[in-house]
Records
---
Amino acid sequence: MDQQPYFYQFLEPISKELAFVARELENSIFSSPRTMLTHARVFVENILHKVVKEEKLQMEPRSTLKELLDLLHQHDLLDTEIRNSLHFVRQIGNQAAHDTRMFRYSEALLSWEAVYKIVKWYIEVYGPVSLSVPDYQDPVPKVGQTYDISEIEAKIKGMEELLTKSLQKIEVDTAEQEIAMTTEEIKVKSELPGFTTIRKISYNDQVLEIPNFLRDSFLLPQRFSKSETFLIRLGAEQQARIMSELPNNLSGLHKHVKRYNEKNDEILFGELKIFIQEEKERRKLLLKRPGELFFSIKTTIL
């Protein structure tokens, strides 16, 4: 699937990490205003870290957003409008992180507009002259958008970790390439709703990535021909009935039932790999052709 356009795509030439976090903020406005407000605060905090480095100012490594804001204000680097925008994003972000009330779309949109002012100021003052900032646009709900809140949180947190790494001084070229490659990988993986990796299951040196849409899927024994009896026995012990019941490492799973061994763990891991791939293909088809009815036929070649 081609990468869908998003408003802050123009940031990619100077910071893909910033651009991708902004993309997920945009996606979360109408899915979870609280998520957008909370992480917008982290987004602008990273912008201020970049400003501090550009200005070669001294600060504590773990400075809060307010401390960064105050530091830049003390050096007369913020005009009134930008300072007010930063305070607004910080304050409503703090509320979203601690207040249990429902947050409205209108509040997320106000924060989105404040973020735009901050980004525009940052690009115009510290960005390359060749980079132009487009006029402000209100985001619109995306048709077919089905990311749930836990998936959005996982996506944003993963990208924020990359953003933090990108701000650290990296002297080894290979490390920079590694971060760039990881960023590109996240870019691809975040295209389809439900496909964000929510957890990983390992066996020996092999790893399976569990997409969000399969997080709590039922592991029907009949779907696993070589492990059917094994899963039935595990189910009787209230183990491995759904994906979320599986341990992070399958090694030793057989110990929950009698007369099974490590080989059964290995076989189940292999069948899980096939199961996940089949379900991914099925979901891609459903997303591509919603509302249509499909029959799956599995054949065995003798």
---
Amino acid sequence: MPGPLGKDLLGLAPLSADQIRLVLDTAVPFREISERAIKKVPTLRGATIVNLFFEASTRTRISFEFAEKRLSADTVNVASAGSSVSKGETLVDTARNLEAMKIDMVVIRHGASGAAQFLAERIESNVINAGDGTNEHPTQGLLDLLTLRNHLGDLTGRRICIVGDVLHSRVARSNIWGLTKLGAEVAVCGPRSLLPNAIGEMGVTVFDRIEEAIEWADAFNVLRLQLERMQAGYIPSLREYNRVYGVTRARLEKAPRDILILHPGPMNRGVEIDSDVADGPHSVILDQVTNGVAVRMAVLYLLAGGKPELADAAKKGGA
């Protein structure tokens, strides 16, 4: 029987505001597990979870592994380079073979938008999207929301600006869906060449100048400039990008209020963000990493049918 999130977590666009708040609220007691001596509860003992990564990933894969192991699940990691996929096996064949081994969940990262949904429609196991193409990265969006809520409180009316390469960013899309559902005002800022043509249809404000965004925002979510895509001529040069759109201390010192700084990582220091900002007093980048494990524990727990009201009991090892 599907849990309160349904069978799968494919994106934040399909979720209601109440479902998003449910994940964030459930993550709070799970975060405390990471802060104690024995970082483990028996909540998912006996469950088998496969991490199926068709794209290189360190942060997301390790964060999911920590979440799975802290819930006592058995985990299997499959990378495309060392699997039958590199020999021509299709995504569905791979998943069906894994499912024949009686697995319970699949965490998938794939370079094609819609891959997670494609898989979810063809297997009975729960599917969690760990990033698909330029579509969504829902658990990153959720951990960003949790981090913002922890520092800003209720997000209704709060002004959050997403800065940088929005065009290629699945993180940006998950953030926009999640933030708008929770009542925040959302803006984007970056070169027009790195903004989707239809960005205005997502209900966001567009700033062409970083100075205008700094005047407006309560928080910045600074996106990685995807260097591997920049050869296509989206920007004149990395130095020019930093000069015009870089989030620097000199710029932030002119802000009318303290601006919270988030970054999904990995960072290009000196390009989209300067080191003294990334490591500065208003940066919550390491909080994002800690919240990532808690959010993923919450998602795994809820998809497995866990009751939100029992999350505290799970934290104490009683569920």
---
Amino acid sequence: MTLGGILIGSFLIGFSGAVMPGPLLGITINASLKRGFAAGPLIILGHGILELFLIIAMTLGLKDFFSNSTAAGFIGILGGAYLGWMGYDMITSSIKRTAALQGQETQKINSKNLVLSGIVVSATNPYFILWWAATGIEMLRQSYVFGLYGVLLFFVGHIMSDLTWYTAVSIAFSRGKKLLSDVLYRRIIFLLGLFLLAFALYFIKNGLTLIIGMV
């Protein structure tokens, strides 16, 4: 594989994963409706910070931790609990809050919160960790043939795929907000909350399965 192949390959493989629905998409849509088009890039900044640390850790030889089923299981349970809390909060918010409070919500959401959300939602997603333990580590191995420069190109291509997709999602939903009535707006938030609750249950179930399977 050439350096150009590493860059293009990491972008295409990363993009195929980025467009799949998941909890990161849910919080991006929710934040885009409240904050605007900047939500996606800020959330991906947090996501990218975590991925950078993962790449550094794997390069230093810590890949065994990320392929450990027990670790992935506990991550799944913690991730499910966190997503469950987020989903519940979104559902209750959509029921109790009115359009008059939406401006206050926007003021409460700042850049630090969005970056932190990108880190936490990614870190507590066991499939994010398992992807890096399988596909990610192999791509990293191939990139490392070219030294740190190859690893850097791999990271750039991968994070650009996430940034491209989630920026597009943020732009689409932030513009659509102007066309939404308060009732439709709150229904979307309610459905996103259910979406996160479904993932929460799925993460917890699979986390328990991974742990029990190791006993």
